[in-house]
Each structure stands twice: as structure tokens, then as C-alpha cells.
Amino acid sequence: MSYPRIIQGGMGIGVSDWRLAGAVGSAGGLGVVSGVALDSMLARRLQDGDHDGQLRQALVHFPVPEIAEKVLSRYFIHGGRPADRPYRLVPRLSLEPSLDRLRLAVVAAFAEVHLARQAARGARVGINFLEKVQLATPAAAYGALLAGVDVVLVGAGIPARFPALLDDLSQHRKVEFPIDVSGAGQNRHMLSFDPVAVLGRAIAAVARPLFLAIVSSNTLATYLARDSETRPDGFVVEGEIAGGHNAPPRGVLQLDVTGDPVYGPRDITDTAQFVELGLPFWLAGGYSQPDRVAAACAAGASGVQVGTLFALSRDSNLDEALRSQLLVTLREGDPQVRTDSRASPTGFPFKVAQLPGTLSDRDVYEGRARICDLSYLRIPYTKPDGTIGYRCPAEPVNAYLRKGGEAVETVGRICLCNALMSAVGLGQRRHDGEVEPPISTLGADLDGARELLKRHPDGWGAADVIAYLSA
To answer: 126 near 148, Cβ under 8 Å?
Structure first.
């Protein structure tokens, strides 16, 4: 196949939704939907009334209609929920999910990819997963495959299990997906997923998508590439200035005066070594200008992955008030973007744009009551009696401590699940009337965004980004 020069980053929870992926694809790039929390996204959009009917139209095409109809009957509210009513939550992830929970995840991923493919007008589309969100992955990946996704991208961890997973799911074979459980020692824990049991019938095999591993070191890339069972079809090589989650610095963690991790020479990847691996690769983080794209290709890359320029475009699903605030800040000066070593419950550094009214604001953070009701970043752990529990360092501190967690792990943690939902206008309304505050993540390289703002003072679209970077 011919490889796209520009890959759009799979961002946040729903920032890179089907509309953005479709717009990027139709403009000549690889559009990518975020695969995180698609089940909650679908449930909340349906509860808001699905006013344009796009989701219901997508579900008509699900291969087992009665499964999609059951999801609709459970979550769809004609005319939308009252503004003062909280969203109905979806069941939490676990090692032993119910059949309905699995089906919701499959249907949600199918709908998002189906709509993206329609909007892309025949161009390829991809889906991005976080390796850390393991309990959600098999069902969501299967739903994406049913919809004909072309590329699967995975970062925030070591995605060694994904080539085999995609092989099996494309043939509708039952999979046993390994899950990391804290305190399990040598005991292995597996998440079972049986496509035939989930659909209730056998269907014809589907196309196996390409798999791109998102990595931040030559060592990890070499490890993945050396064995046919773990070898991806290509790499996205992400530097530490990229938005979202970043790999921790290598060696002993050192922090600067703001509390951000300090990266050094060991964290710089050697592009020549990626060329030697013989697999296509794209560079990410700091490639927001045409000359940087050209330099990446001259160094042997197939192209670049870009996030911030697309996140700020009018085609992204970022809440309009938040986008306007970011663009005003960009127009008036330099937005501060921290690499916060404490924000993410995953323990990975996370880029946080410093904006009033968001969880980067200390007063907003302190004023939010800690709650863990979406739970995508919960970590399975072994209880003293040998059973499995679930905990998150962003949950209420007392609850985390009761589950054997350490108090130091809770300091500065942000509930990214709820905050990122709010960033796309789907924040939960609490019983006291407060709506969950958002958080915004951007890359540290804003030079391309400044240039686009000069060229398009009223904002830009995804096609403008592709045209600019391809100049």
C-alpha cells in the first residue's frame, strides 16, 4: 500500500472523533479516531438525543441488528436528557465483564469507525488505543475491525500483544488477552473475549488492519521488531514534546523547578536505527511545520504524526469554548504547556495546557470532589485473600488507601476520564449541579499553530492543516 505522509494523532477521549478522522482522510492524510472510552461516548451522545441521527444510522449497519437495538433501547433518549439530569453510566471494566458490557464496547467502536470511514469518502482510517487501558481493548478492537478499520495504532505502554490479537480477531477466534495485575507475581491473569459468543453467531472473516506501534525508544522498537509474534507493520516514533501521554525519561527521574521531568540525551531516538529495522515509520512531536515534515522524510521516515494542529482545528470535537480559549491564549502570547509528572493516574507524564477554569488551575483542582465512576484507568490488583480488586490513584484517597495503595501515589492525580469527557462537552453533571471541569492537552511545539492562526485568523480546518504541512 502507499503510505500517507501525514497521520493525525488519536487524541484524548473523543477529540479526534469520526468527523475529524473523516475530514483528515478526505484531505489526503490518515484520519484516526481515539479508541478510548468509546462506549461512554456513545452512551452519552445517545442520552443527549443524537440530534443529527448519525449514530442511529451507523448502528443500522451493525452486523447483528438486535444487539445494536438493545444498546439503543438502553441509552437513547428522544429529544435528549434534561439539562439537570446526570448521564447514566456504563458498567465498569473488569476481568469478568458481562455480555452486555462487551456488546456495548463492540457496538460503540463499530459506530465510530463506520462513521469515520463514511466521512473519509473511501480513504483509509485508523483507531488509536492506549496499551494501559487493557481491559477495554479486545472488545473495542473487535468492533473497529467489524467496521473495516484500516490501521490500529497503540501507545502508552509495550504493545507486544497486539499483532496476535488482531490476527485472531480478524478470524473471529477466541482470545485470551494478558492483563497486568499489581501484586500478582508470577500468576498470569487473562481477559477472555469470544467474538462468536459476543455476536451470538459466526460471520465471515474480516480484513486484518495494519498495526503501528507508538514507541519512544530504539530499544523498544528493536524488541518488538525482532519476533514475528510482536513485530508491528510500522512505528510512530514519538518525542517527549508531543501532546498527551509521554514516555518517562530514562534513568533516575529528575524534576525541574516546576516539577516537570527532565529529559536528556538518552531520550533522543536514533532515526538511522529505525531505517535499519526496515519497517515504515513516522516521527511525532515537533513536526508542525512544512520544513520539519520534509526533514523527517529526508531522514528516511514515511512521514509524520501531528496532533495539536488538528486538535485546534474546527473539525475536531474539542469543546468550542475550550478551543476558543486556547486560540485566544495562542493569539495573545505563549500558552504554557507543562509535562506534568503527577497528573495521569497511569504514572506516565502528561502534557497539560495551563488554562483558567480547567483542572490545571489549582483552585479548580482543589474544589473538585474526588470520584472514580468511569474507571478506565483503574488498575487491577491482588487482594490479601487472592481475589482481584480495582483501584485508581485519582479516586478518593481513603478508598485508595483501603485498597492497599500508598498515599504518595494520590498526590496531584487528576481524574483524566471525567476531565477529558468534559473537554468534548460530555462532562458529567453531579447531583449538586456542578459539571465536571475539563482538562486540555497540547504538544509543546506551537510554532505551526501560530503560523496557521496568522493565515487563518478565524480558525482553520483539517484540510488547511494538510495543505500547510504538504507545502
So the answer is: no
Report how far residue 178's alpha carbon sits from residue 134's, in angstroms, rounded to the nearest whole number: 8
Is 248 in contact with 349 (CB distance < 8 Å)?
yes
Q: pTM of the full predicted structure?
A: 0.95
Q: What is the mean pLDDT of residues 111-136?
A: 95
SS3 400: helix
Which is it for strands 281-284 and 234-238: parallel, antiparallel or unpaired?
parallel
Alpha-carbon span 26 to 23, nearest angstrom: 5
**Which CATH fold topology does 6-319+449-469 show?**
TIM Barrel (3.20.20)
Domain boundaries, the chain: 6-319+449-469
Q: Are strands 234-238 and 210-215 parallel, antiparallel or unpaired?
A: parallel
Residue 152 phi/psi, 5-degree rounding, is: -115, 130
Cell of 70: 438493545
d(CA 203, CA 94): 27
Predicted confidence (pLDDT) per residue in 235-276, tens digit: 999 988 888 888 888 887 888 888 788 888 888 888 999 999
Q: Which residues of 249-267 are buried (b: 16+ CB within 10 A; e: fewer)?
A: beeeeeeeeeebbebeeeb
Determine contact, residues 191/198, Cβ cutoff 8 Å.
no
Helix (H) / strand (E) element for 373: namely: none
> What is the separation of C-alpha 358 from the centre of its chain, rounded to a whole number of angstroms?
20
Rounded to the nearest integer, the mean pLDDT of the chain is 94
Backbone angles phi, psi at 110, to 5 degrees: -60, -50
- CA-to-CA separations, 399 to 180, 345, 371, 381, in angstroms, rounded: 21, 15, 10, 14
